[in-house]
């Protein structure tokens, strides 16, 4: 009995000692590594902090950079950019000359109560429904910690600010075009007047600004088709509602798409720059000499 008890006690003591050795092994190994490391070797870089999903400060910085990039963009345009601008402008002018009156007359002849109800509903994707879509991306991004969804919400908000909140009102005021419902014809303009605000279509501009942001962030073809399909239907609804001419809608589609894509491009560059490689230099002192240590964190 005594021998058995002593054997059990020895087993318990051995297990206890082994546990202590295992617990102290990492600290012992770290101490040995530090003793063997050359003098002056810099400590390992701490892990880079993960940026928050949303920051008011960062969003404000993006807004300032976007404003600068969009306003000064024509100064950096090359021949291809000016060609695109000229083609878009010509398309709007030709549409106004050739299609505005015929399309307006045809759309009003074919109006029905059912089409009116559908148009009144779908056109909200160029107004309050577009904000609901961006809000959905923001909620999902925060709940699922999905950075790409949060970027869609932020970029969509900024694109809406520049397209729907700034560019559209300025153009409406400067052009001063009468709406079809005013029965003044498709060539009635009162520039720098707040009474006539048909050009461009604000609903269409907003719908395409949000659609272009979603399409730019998502590689799925069906998402792009749905986004641009809804935006295009918003434009058709504004024509059916006799609120805009066809050229107003085309101008809004071009304006919203251009600003939406520009915002995504500018913000992606800024985000890559903020999260890109960080290169630092520090002196290196070793037992047999020294030098300069370059550290790159990716």
What this model shows, in words?
- With 298 residues, this protein is mainly α.
- The protein has one domain: Vanadium-containing Chloroperoxidase, domain 1, CATH 1.20.144.
- The chain is built from eleven helices and two strands.
- It has helices at 2-36, 56-71, 73-76, 79-98, 100-109, 113-122, 128-144, 147-175, 202-217, 221-240, 246-275, and strands spanning 278-286, 289-297.
- A two-stranded antiparallel ribbon has the order 1-2.
- Strand 1 (278-286) and strand 2 (289-297) form a beta hairpin.
- It is globular.
Indicate the CATH architecture.
Up-down Bundle
The total of helices stands at: 11
Instruction: State the CATH topology.
Output: Vanadium-containing Chloroperoxidase, domain 1
Number of strands: 2
Number of domains: 1
CATH class: Mainly Alpha
SSE layout and pairing:
Elements: H1 2-36, H2 56-71, H3 73-76, H4 79-98, H5 100-109, H6 113-122, H7 128-144, H8 147-175, H9 202-217, H10 221-240, H11 246-275, E1 278-286, E2 289-297
Helix pairs in contact: 2-11, 4-11, 6-10, 7-8, 8-9, 8-11, 9-10, 9-11, 10-11
How would you summarize what this structure contains?
With 298 residues, the protein is mostly helical. Helix content is 69%, strand content 6%. The protein has a single domain (56-275), classed as Vanadium-containing Chloroperoxidase, domain 1 (Up-down Bundle).
């Amino acid at each position: 009995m005594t021998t058995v008890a002593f054997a059990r006690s020895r087993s318990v003591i051995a297990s206890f000692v082994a546990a202590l050795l295992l617990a102290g092994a990492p600290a012992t190994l770290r101490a040995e590594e530090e003793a063997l490391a050359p003098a002056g070797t810099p400590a390992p870089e701490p892990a880079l902090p993960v940026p928050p999903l949303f920051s008011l400060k960062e969003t404000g910085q993006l807004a300032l950079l976007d404003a600068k990039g969009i306003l000064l963009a024509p100064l950096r345009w090359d021949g291809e950019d000016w060609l695109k601008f000229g083609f878009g402008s010509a398309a709007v002018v030709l549409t106004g000359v050739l299609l505005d009156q015929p399309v307006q007359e045809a759309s009003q002849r074919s109006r029905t109560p059912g089409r009116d109800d559908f148009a009144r509903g779908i056109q909200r994707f160029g107004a309050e429904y577009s904000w609901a879509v961006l809000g959905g991306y923001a909620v999902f991004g925060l709940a699922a910690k999905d950075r790409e969804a949060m970027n869609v919400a932020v970029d969509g908000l900024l694109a809406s600010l520049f397209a729907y909140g700034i560019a559209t009102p300025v153009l409406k005021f400067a052009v001063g075009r009468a709406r079809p419902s005013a029965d003044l014809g498709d060539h009635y303009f009162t520039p720098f007047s707040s009474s006539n605000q048909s050009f461009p279509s604000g609903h269409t501009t907003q719908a395409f600004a949000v659609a272009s942001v979603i399409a730019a962030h998502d590689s799925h073809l069906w998402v792009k088709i749905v986004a641009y399909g809804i935006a295009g239907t918003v434009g058709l609804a504004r024509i059916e509602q006799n609120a805009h001419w066809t050229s107003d809608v085309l101008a809004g589609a071009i304006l919203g798409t251009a600003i939406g894509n520009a915002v995504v491009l500018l913000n992606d560059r800024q985000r890559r720059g903020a999260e890109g490689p960080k290169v630092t230099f520090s002196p290196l002192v070793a037992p047999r000499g020294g030098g300069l240590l370059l550290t790159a964190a990716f």
